[in-house]
Structures are given as structure tokens and as C-alpha cells.
Amino acid sequence: MSSFGTLFKVTTYGESHCKSVGCIVEGVPPGLALTEEDIQPQLTRRRPGQSKLSTPRNEKDRVMIQSGTEFGKTLGSPIGMLVLNQDQRPHDYGEMDVFPRPSHADLTYIQKYGLKSSSGGGRASARETIGRVAAGAIAEHILKKINNVEIVAFVSQIGNVAMNRDCNDPTFLKILNTATKDSIDATGPIRCPDENVKDEMVKVIEKHRDSNDSIGGVVTCVIRNCPIGLGEPCFDKLEALLAHAMLSVPATKGFEIGSGFEGVKVPGSKHNDPFTYDENLKRLRTTTNNSGGIQGGISNGENIYFSVAFKSAATISQEQPTSTYDGKDGVLAAKGRHDPSVTPRAVPIVEAMAALVIMDQVLIQNSRTSTIDMLKKH
Amino acid sequence: MSSFGTLFKVTTYGESHCKSVGCIVEGVPPGLALTEEDIQPQLTRRRPGQSKLSTPRNEKDRVMIQSGTEFGKTLGSPIGMLVLNQDQRPHDYGEMDVFPRPSHADLTYIQKYGLKSSSGGGRASARETIGRVAAGAIAEHILKKINNVEIVAFVSQIGNVAMNRDCNDPTFLKILNTATKDSIDATGPIRCPDENVKDEMVKVIEKHRDSNDSIGGVVTCVIRNCPIGLGEPCFDKLEALLAHAMLSVPATKGFEIGSGFEGVKVPGSKHNDPFTYDENLKRLRTTTNNSGGIQGGISNGENIYFSVAFKSAATISQEQPTSTYDGKDGVLAAKGRHDPSVTPRAVPIVEAMAALVIMDQVLIQNSRTSTIDMLKKH
Amino acid sequence: MSSFGTLFKVTTYGESHCKSVGCIVEGVPPGLALTEEDIQPQLTRRRPGQSKLSTPRNEKDRVMIQSGTEFGKTLGSPIGMLVLNQDQRPHDYGEMDVFPRPSHADLTYIQKYGLKSSSGGGRASARETIGRVAAGAIAEHILKKINNVEIVAFVSQIGNVAMNRDCNDPTFLKILNTATKDSIDATGPIRCPDENVKDEMVKVIEKHRDSNDSIGGVVTCVIRNCPIGLGEPCFDKLEALLAHAMLSVPATKGFEIGSGFEGVKVPGSKHNDPFTYDENLKRLRTTTNNSGGIQGGISNGENIYFSVAFKSAATISQEQPTSTYDGKDGVLAAKGRHDPSVTPRAVPIVEAMAALVIMDQVLIQNSRTSTIDMLKKH
Amino acid sequence: MSSFGTLFKVTTYGESHCKSVGCIVEGVPPGLALTEEDIQPQLTRRRPGQSKLSTPRNEKDRVMIQSGTEFGKTLGSPIGMLVLNQDQRPHDYGEMDVFPRPSHADLTYIQKYGLKSSSGGGRASARETIGRVAAGAIAEHILKKINNVEIVAFVSQIGNVAMNRDCNDPTFLKILNTATKDSIDATGPIRCPDENVKDEMVKVIEKHRDSNDSIGGVVTCVIRNCPIGLGEPCFDKLEALLAHAMLSVPATKGFEIGSGFEGVKVPGSKHNDPFTYDENLKRLRTTTNNSGGIQGGISNGENIYFSVAFKSAATISQEQPTSTYDGKDGVLAAKGRHDPSVTPRAVPIVEAMAALVIMDQVLIQNSRTSTIDMLKKH
User: Fold this and answer.
1) How far is residue B83 CA from its own chain's centroid?
2) Contact A111, B300 (CB under 8 A)
3) How far are the Cα atoms of A185, C122, C220, D59 from residue B70, in angstroms, in the given order?
4) CB D17 within 8 A of CB D90
5) Distance from the first to the final alpha carbon of chain B
6) What's B247's domain CATH number?
7) Which three-class secondary structure state does DSSP give residue B30?
8) In whole angstroms, how far apart are CA D267 and each of A247, C229, C299, C341?
9) Which among C30, C76, C371 has CB closest to B29?
10) Helix D343-377 crosses helix A129-147 at what angle (to 10 degrees)?
């Protein structure tokens, strides 16, 4: 379905070639200062056409709040939001009407729904993520206020150029501890905070752009100051919800939390995160963070960090031998310019999805703790 | 919460030290032949204590159907199932009452719920997975009948000994195409079908067992004959649901579908799966399968394959410097023998979770296609 | 929350004084002919200001489809719809800023959300029902196509003037069997098909209008040609879902299905609906229909009929002794003209909510029957 | 489906002729004192065979907690509970194998599921309500502790003998304000607290019992000390959730809140509940309560009261002309003794369903208020 979340819930609508895309956000607490200015920046960061590294289609993407606020404050009712579709160009995909684009959703869409849409893959489109980013921006806005939660994503790999993502590596650890949205954006359109690899990453993208090809990458995200105790211990472990959220983003192929796939090589005696008492916080903390801030499915107050694999973009201008819809061999070359790497642009989408997960779990855990408090009083 | 699924839904209860663990399964179609004999084998495969490679606690784990069947056929009503807890030994965890076990759920459980349970991490326990495996066995049973769906998981990595998981590798491709539960079990407790690496994997586990340590691994799973058109294009992409399912299994750290994290290194021109017409099936297929059987969030009829990273088991008999609950430095050594690698035992759990996802999506897509058919008739 | 339904789901947003009200409808099958012309008529029927019997505020209420259709056909993706708020007049409620309106949602809104909104009761407003009616119109449109389902509501009582609602009464039975939306609207703004009582009903409303008072009523609704087998036998009995739907409409105080509250007086020997074989339909039917078309929570193919009680409108121009927000006794008289009876205007809202329930259950039951069919084939 | 609730959620399983019936309850706060002794009394009150007024089948119905508690305290994990089916007597329904019982679920069950079960209507059975009552008892237990919530149901009508249910009637008002479960049970098996009508009610039941017939009735329920602010203003108005809950109970035909169906006859000027300032509570209250404790879908702190219509039991020993499954006219007479009125026995079921609704809404509203508090602190 088109909803995500239980108490903090977003429902999105819209595809590439309709009047608008948008969403309804439920669960926003009343009395919160909120205007379009709190939401637009993340939409602007998501927008394509911002640099030579991404597609030149300049979509304006101005968000318009429809409901749920009054005099700049939330009412507690659902926030309706929409962004008009301006740059529709429905005829630009001409040749694709003959060819299903390889590794795109054109064919599976028809197999599922029994018909072809002019957007090809319908809702499985980058444009659908606008509603998510708008909703995620509200979630981040609230999380910032209630617990100074910081959610920062960045590019950690392009092609085979990767930063070390071991949390015991000092460079990576420092990035996890200090990177901000501003510092990430200050690194340029590549959005990579590791000086040792970022220039090389740019070169890899440029090389693939110049050969009308595309290349994949990895986005890593850190959540700082996440409230302790979030996540449900069984099916809705916090990492499971994050994995769900991330793999629902178009073009993703993998998710790992904490030590991830590399961590399986580390014996328990080294992988386990020992406890120590923190005098300032007056509570136990872990001395290492291979767990990635989640243990037994529940946040433990350490930095939550995870990585998301994005495949190379499916749409390339290079000629590809493939088949037409009606089964004839042929060669497809997508017209126009296309994103050589969607990875840097995915940064605000990853942040948005992370924020949606955390905000929903805050509401659920708040329900539990406040009910425990009521029981204790009586 | 403790439910998973929308139309095919399992709700589980139970932890390590209570009377029973069990589940309620909703959405089982009526008129299906089903007895405990269809469910028990997967529970038996999940059971610890089956080999020198896993923990010697011999839990019997006999499933008892409580409701929803009559004369060996399903009624269409919920299937209640339970397994008695026999080997509870609540006092065996003595020293752990002083120490929160590192990288276990003991501390986060207290942080979340405000109290300590004798099972430590409560529901975040391997024992909770019994209900999932029982429910998953029913799902597999149905999927087999309606579309000859085959779900087979196996160990593809232990520590740093890994099989090549590139679907363009002939050995891996052959395994994806031909492995069966029986052939996997025939490889021994290691459950690895790759002759080139399995013996080395066993050695890695034995080495860690002998040093009272543990080691992680990767389970890969293939779903063959999955109906085309499953998955919802936005938040509930099929890979997102699988990722959610897999990361909800205890001790998991990562998930990847198709080409996964390695795939980000491959340019679009090579990563894209070209289409070709299949004369036998009378439909388009892809000539490669980097997509892993899912495109735009929707199954395309190719083999779905994915991998799940399992960390090294947190409970080891080796001494670990850590802190007590009340903040005093100390050294913890878990008594008794512990699983040096949970990875091989996770095989049926991964299969069960995969089956639950696919079955639920079959019901949802069946609703759509049958409604489309009704529209066409009128 | 602001969603209703499982597979056919509507999520609404908007209150009286924001930019627009609208909804997202999920679960609409692809390939269906659908334009705004299929939706607008029910919105127009819902609109206030159509007669001397209702409030003169003339809201235009033009629905605009945002997404989910292309070239007049549905895509299978969510249908976003909105209606602009034109006649906001936020200052008309001046005195109500001092007084919480009795039996309105002004005070409970503040108690729940901790703040006052200029609409008083926020989402508990008649205007919110626009999204429901738009979604319900789509549901009715589909139901008509797939099974010739007819959903017709009408006024059966105003104040103490009531038609006989016993299904064994020939007049009532004839109305249940033959009334159409057109025939109901042809009776005038009172929307009552019983010639014996309709004129008296009009007089009752006029009497209360002339004394600046209001009066309640009952809307009865019949669903003809409802598919057999809808409803889930436990918590989601069909009548339970209808009751939920109806009591969620503003100003409702009661719901009854079939024989309803009067039926409790009838002994089982007379209340039971005997079976008889119908040669034309080649199946059993009941000879009477005290059950109201639902038995054991499941539709049986007979007419489903139910009634909904609407209280007298809370907003009246007459002076009412009450208290101000800050606890001072005073007298409130709402300015302007107000609906003396909301009951006739509720007719399309009742129909919409009924359609949403039935459509959702069709999708759920279709999932079951098509899966049973798959099992039988193998 | 077989679940009810969002955060406080019960999932039930079981029908008349299986090993056990039971449920899983999610959302129970940790640290709560809870044993089977807190649950059994309501199950015992629900049990048939307690008096000459109800069926003599003496089912033992001992609840056994399976999980979620330790040393008499809840863990925060799901509470699994079951009751063994002892008195199954599957062969007692012999003749009913030929006849679908009129106004029972036998036929619709087959129409929905495509097969016959030995229980006839499967889950649409009184026995299924055991899981609900067990779950509801836990909810009531919590509500009592956190806000001294009192939920008391009683019989207010049998056949055409009814107490005055107008909240402005002194006798009815006194009952709403003072009745307790104990005082209700002290009135005998009729469970009617109105001395003026209870003896006559008993006679009505006896008369129908003696003629092998059955008769319906009305159960009224009051919820005192309900927290203010419960219910969501749109689809999940508190009265809508209560209506859903009540109409999901077998044999119900109607629901009304506050003034209900009679209230439609009262003009707004009399029906509106004026506000007045309460010096003790330091807040506004209403001087009358036609609203039934809910305004705009949200609880306002006044007594919530509602009534539920129960039809005459469908199973009677009297001969009924009807048709066999295969369409032959015949006469059915159910063997054995049957409940002449299910109404008094429904009292604890109504209480249980009310408690489930209120508890779930407490958790949801607690989430909101505690999040508002977090926002205010920062």
C-alpha cells in the first residue's frame, strides 16, 4: 500500500505525469511551529538538476501545505501537502513505448496491473519520493525539537571507491560523530565528507557520465541522540523498520546496520560491545559500537548508523541490446541526459525515511512509558 | 508489535521461560490439507542441539495445532499453534543477573520496559522464532501447492570464508537453480552446498568453538517459481518487505537483494538485465538476473535471491571485560556451552520469513487480479 | 487516525479553514474508466445550501483528481483528490471564541489537543466528509460495474415522524426493493420516499427552522446485489464494519441492522429467517429478512439494510444558557442561519461510507476465493 | 481478520470443536501485577449453565496464561492465554448437518469458505468470545489501576419489557452513576438493576423457555471515570470504535450512544448539553449528558453510556419449517436445551469489548499527550 508508519504515518500519492504529487501526514503533535520553510530545504536538496553530476531537469518542487496548520502552528490534524508537477514532458519517452527499459519497472508494472502507464513504472519512480521527503522533513523537525536528534546521510561509496565504514576506524568514527547536513553539502554535489576519497568518487561519476553510462554507490546515515528504548523486540526491531524503509527507496539493493556484512568476519569476542559506566550520563554505555546503536532490536543511545546500497541507474543513453514489448530483439538508447549516479541525490531521501521510522517509534514508545508512569502513580 | 503481515498474518507470543511459545496464523485458505506433519520438519530443522556445531540443549519442540483444522483440513479460521517450553533452566543464567550480556538485549530490554526478565532479552530471543517457523511452514506448504514455489536457504559464508555470490558465477547460479532443502541438509550441519568452501567453513566454526568464541556468517536464500507481479510499488516493494522480515530475525546485521552491495560497483550498461523473448513461456524474461527477481519492487518471475548477514553470537564462554548493571567493571564468562555459530541454524528461519512475505503478497495480488477480472467481465 | 479500510483505503485531510480538503484512495483496480464526472454528483448531493431545508452557505465543492488516472482510466495507483475551500469565513464564529458550543466538539478538541482551532472542532466537521464522499463515489462506481451493486439511502424519520422500518411491512419492503438515488431525489430535499410521512417530515423541519431550533432524524440505507460471503466472522463482521463507518459520521447517535432494536421484541420462532430454495438463482434464500442481509457477520445475498440515527444539529440560532471557556455563565446565540436538520444532507455520506465498507470487503473476499481457486487447480 | 485494536491489541483463535480457544494480547504495560485470578472472574460470568435462565452446558473455562508474566508481574511482552475445550459434543448437532440453522451462520459460512465445519458457523460462535473476555479483563484491570475506570453493563430490556433509558430519567441516571458488577450480579441471573422491571423480564424469558422459543433484549453499559480526550475525530470517533466492537459480538442488531434513537426526536435546544463550571474539578462539565460522554468523537469526562440490541437466540428447540442444504423443504427442531435469552450472558462480553476500546485509545492518546509534553519542555 502507499502508507508507512503506525502512529506517525505518511500516505503518498502521485506519479510522474499527473497534476501533483503529495502526501498526508498523520500523527504530527499539535502546537508545533511549522511552515513550508521547515520542509522546503530537504525537497530542494532532493531536487534533480543541481549540478553537473545529476540530471539537468529542473523541477521546481515547491511544497504547499493544504491543511493541519493555522497561523504557523500545527493543529494536531493531518498535514496535507502537495507539489505541482511542472516538467511533465510525457512525450520524451517515445522509444521506451516500444522497449521496456531494462532493470526498470516498465514491464513488471504491466505484469502487475495489466496496463501500461505513460510514466512506465508508475509509482516506482523517483518523483514519488517527494511526498516522503516532505513528510520526513516534518519528522526531523519534531525530532530535533524533542531530543535534539540529528540525522545526517552522506555518500560513502561510488563504484569501487569507498571510505572505510568500520566504526572502529578513526576517520569514519569522526564523521559519524560530527558530520552535519551543512558540512556534507559543503563537500559539493558528491556529498562525501571523506577528503581521501571524494575527488576520486567525482571522477568515477564523470567517467561514467562521459561514456553515457551510470554507476552505483552507497549512502551511509547516522542518527545521533536517538531516544533510548525505540523499536519493538520481535517483528518490528528498529533495524528491521529501517531496512524496510530503506529498501523501499527506488534503486536500493542492500542495507546494513552497524558492522554489517563485514562484521560477520569478526569473532564474538571482538564484535561484542563491552559496557562501561559513563559518569556524565549516569548510565551504562558501550565502549565500541559494532551494534550500530541497536541491541535486541532496541536503540541503546549510541549513534545509529547504517548503509544503503544504490545500484547504478537503469536509464542510460548508451545503446543496449534488449527486446521490445512484443518480443523482437532490438537496441534501446534512452534519449536525453540521465543521472550518471543517483546516489548523492538519495541523501535527503535516506534521511527522510530514517526520520519517519524514528518518529513513529518515538510515538509508540512514548505511549508505553507514559502508561507505565500512570501505573506507578496509582 | 508482535504481528507480521496484512492478509496472511502471524502473531506470536512467548519467551524463553514461560509455559509455551506459539502463534496465531490468519489468512490460511480453507480446504487445505494440513496437519502437524506438514509443520514439524521445519521446526525440527530449526531446533538447536543437532550437531557438534550447535548448542547441545535438546529442546523437543513438538508443535500442537489448537484450532483452524478439522479432519486434517483447514477451516479458513485462524490456526492456533503452540510448542511447550520444556527445558527452561531459569537459574542457569546466574552470573548474567549481575552483568548485562554485551551485545545482547539484556540492557536495552530494561531501558525499554523498566524491568528485568529472567530471560534477559525477553522476546528478542531465538526461542521466539518458533512461532515464525511454524507459521512459515504453513505458508511454504500453500505456496508449494498453488505455484510450486520453492524456498531454499543455505549458508554462503562463515567468517571470511565465502562462496562467490555473484549470480553471473556458474557455481552460484547452479546452486540458485537446483538446491533443495534435502540437498542442503545432505551437506551436513554446515548447510553449505558449495563443495569448494564448506569444509573450510566447518573448520572456522570449530576453531571458534574450541577457543570459546563465536563467528558470524551469511545465509543466502532463493525463491523459485514466485508468482509474477508480487510487491507494491511504493513503501511495500517486495525487497523492502523481505528486508524487514530478515532484519527482524535475531542477530542479523544486513540484507542484500540480487547483486547487492557488490552490485554498486557495476556500471549500468553491465548491471542492467536485458530482455529476451522466451518461446516456451511465451513471455519476456531477462537474460541476466542482477535484479534478483524483483524490478521496481515487483517480482518478475526470475529467481528471487537475497543474502542475510548474521553476526557472531553474542553469548560466548570466553571471559569478557565489561561492566555490571550497577556500573562496576568486571569480567563476564557465560557458563555452559554456547552456539559458536547461529548461522546454519538460521536457515529454516530465513525460509520461514521469506515464505510469510511471499504468501501475504500472493493474497494481496490475488485480490487485485481477481477484481480486475470481475471488471473485465462486466 | 484518518484512514478507513484495509485494501480499499481512504485517507482524508482537511478541516473547515484550510486551503483544501481531500483524500487519497488506495486499492482502486487499474483499467477502470473514471473521471471527475463519476465523482462530482455525490459531492453535489452532499453540498449544503441546496434548499430551504438546509443551510444557505453555497460551497462549490468541485473535485479535482490529482493522480492515479490517465486518459480517463485508472492506473492502479492511489487516486489523490482535492476540493478547494472557497467559503471560509473564519470570522463568522466570533462569539463562539468565547463560548464552547454546547454538544459540539469545541471543548473536547481543546481537551484532546491542548489548543483551540479557528474551526472549533477541527476535523469533527461536516466539511471533512467531502473526502469520504469522493472516495465513496469511486467505490460505488466500481461496485456498480462488478456486481450491479446498488446503494440507496433515504430519510426514514424526522423528529417523531417515522416510516415503519419493519422489513415485513409492505411499504417499507417495496422501498427497500425499488428505491433509487433518482427516485429519492425526486421526492424533494426531504429525500423521503414514503408519501405517507414525507410532507409531515418537511413540516417538522420547517417548524424547528422557524423557531431557530433543530431536529434530528434517521437515515435508512439499502444495499442491493451485495456479493455473497462478505465480512469476517469475528471482529470484522460486516455489520460491525458498517456500524463503525456510520458512527464515524458527525452527529450520529445510533446504528441498527435488519430488525434492529425493535427486533429484540420478536421471539426467535418469528425472527428467524427460514430458508427456501430459489429455482432461478439455484441456491437457498431466506423467505424473510429480519437478519438484514447478514448472518454470522457474512452477507447472504439478501438486501442489506440498516438505519442511522442523527441527532438534532448542535448549532442553533436560538439563545442557549451555557458557560464561557473560562467558566462564566452566559448566553450563546449562534449568528447566521443554520441547518435545522442535517439528516437529509447525510444521505450521500451514509451511501459513501457503506460503499467504502463493501468495496473493501469485496477485495478481501476476492483474495480468499481466488486463492481457493488456485488451490483447487493444483 | 481476528485482531482488534492498534496498540492494545487482541488476536483470538478457536472455535467450538477444537483443542482450545485463546488469544494473544499485545500492549499490556510491563510491571503490572497480573495473574489468572484477575482474569477468571469475567470468564466465569460469561460461562453458560449458571442458572435456569441459560443453557445447562457446564463448560469449565479455566484460563491459563502462557506467556508475558513472571512472578505475577507482566513483562511487557504479549500475553498468550488459552482455555481448553472440554465439552465438545461434536455429534449433538446431527440434524443440523442436513439443515442450515435459520438465522445462524451455517449457510453463510459455507458460502464464504466453500466448506462445512462441524461447528456450523465456525468462528461466529459464542465460544470465540472467550478470548475477548480474557483480553478485556486485562484491559479493565489496567484501566481500574490507572484512572479508576469502572465499566458496568446490565440488562435494560428483555422482549418488550424495558427500563427507561433516557439519561434525564432519575432511576436510569442513578443506575448509571452507581451500579457495580457486584450490584448487578446481586440482582440474580437476569442482571437487571431496575426493580420495577426485572421480575417481569424474568417472566418473559421463562415464558419463551417454556414454549421452546427465545427472546431478545438490550444490554446497556456505562463507563465511569473514562479519561478525557479519547477517540480520534475522524474515522475513529470513540463511539464508532464502540459501535464496531459491539456489533462484532454475536447476535447483536443495534448500538446507540447517549440519547440514541430516541434522541432524534428531541430538538437541539433541549438536546444540547449546556456547559457549567465545576468548582471541584476546576473545569467545565455539562449539566446534562444526552451526548453520552462523547462529543465530536472525543470523551469529555462524563459517563459514557450506550446500549446494544441482542436478537432472540437463533437456536430454538421448537420446530421450524425451513429447507435442507440441498433445497428440500423440511422441519428442523434443534435437539437439547438452548438458551432462551443470550442477553444476560452478554453482559461481561459487552464490558470486555468496551474495555478493549478504551484501553487502546488510552495508549494512543497517551502517546500524543506525552509527545506534546516533550515539545513543551524544549
Assistant:
1) 19
2) yes
3) 63, 51, 41, 21
4) yes
5) 42
6) 3.60.150.10
7) coil
8) 57, 41, 36, 10
9) C371
10) 70
The mean pLDDT value for D72-83 works out to 96
Q: Which residue has the higher pLDDT, C91 or A192?
A: A192
B350 sits in the region (left: phi over 0; alpha: psi -120 to 50; else beta) called: alpha
Q: Which three cell numbers stand for residue A251?
A: 534503486
Domain that holds residue C293: 3-377
Q: How far apart are CA C155 and CA C284, in angstroms?
A: 32
Determine the pLDDT at residue C175.
98
Interior/surface letters A294-307, b for 16+ CB within 10 angstroms, e for the rest: bbbbbbbbbbbbbb
Q: How far is residue C284's CA from residue C156's CA, in Å, rounded to a whole number?
A: 30
Torsional sign, CA A66, A72, A73, A75: negative
Whether residue D135 contacts residue D23, with contact meaning beta carbons closer than 8 Å, is answered with yes
What DSSP line would sit under B299-320, residue for residue? E-SSPEEEEEEEPPPS--SS-E
Min Cα–Cα distance to chain A from C14, Å: 5
Beta strands in C27-172 (DSSP E): 64-65, 69-70, 73-74, 79-84, 150-158, 161-162
- Sheet of A9-13: strands edge to edge? A3-4, A9-13, A20-26, A79-84, A64-65
CA dist., res. A358 & res. A306, Å (int): 14
What nine digits make up the cell of D217? Answer: 433484549
Hey, which residues does A65 pair with through a beta bridge?
A81
Residues of A with CB under 8 A from a CB of C: 1-3, 7, 9, 11-15, 17-22, 24, 26-27, 30-31, 64-70, 73, 75-80, 82, 112-115, 117-118, 122-123
Query: Inter-chain contact A366–D374, Cβ cutoff 8 Å?
Result: yes
Which residues of C does the annotation mark as catalytic? 17, 104, 339
d(CA A298, CA B124): 9
Query: In chain D, which residues have their Cβ closer than 8 Å to the Cβ of C267?
Result: 159, 208, 213-215, 312
CA nearest C349: which of C176, C166, C78, C133?
C133
Q: What is the DSSP letter of C50?
A: S
- What's C117's DSSP letter? B
Domains contained in chain D, number:
1
CA distances (Å), origin D366, targets A368, C112, D361:
8, 10, 8
Give the phi and the psi of residue C303 in degrees, each rounded to 5. -60, 130
HSE-up of B303 (CA within 13 Å, CB side)?
A: 26
- ipTM of the complex, rounded to two decimals: 0.96
Cell representation of residue B184: 542442503
Single-letter amino acid code for the residue at D233: P
What is the predicted pLDDT for the residue at D73?
94
Q: Report the relative pairing of strands A20-26 and A79-84 from DSSP bridges.
A: antiparallel
Max Cα–Cα distance, chain D, nearest Å: 75
**Grid cell listed for A131:** 511526498
3-state class percentages of chain D: helix first, strand second, coil last, to nearest 5: 35, 20, 45
Strand, helix or coil for residue D213: coil
Digitized pLDDT (tens) for each residue of chain A, 378 residues in all: 899 999 999 999 998 889 999 999 999 999 999 999 999 999 999 887 656 565 545 557 899 999 999 999 999 999 999 999 875 544 445 565 889 999 999 999 999 999 887 766 677 678 889 999 999 999 999 999 999 999 999 999 999 999 999 999 999 999 999 999 999 999 999 999 999 999 999 999 999 999 999 999 999 999 999 999 999 999 999 999 999 999 999 999 999 999 999 999 999 999 999 999 999 999 999 999 999 999 999 999 999 999 999 999 998 989 999 999 999 999 998 777 788 999 999 999 999 999 999 999 999 999 999 999 999 987
Q: What is the pLDDT of residue A97?
A: 80
Active site residue A326: no
- Cell, residue B13: 507470543
* Of residues A30, A146, A378, nearest to D374 (C-beta): A146
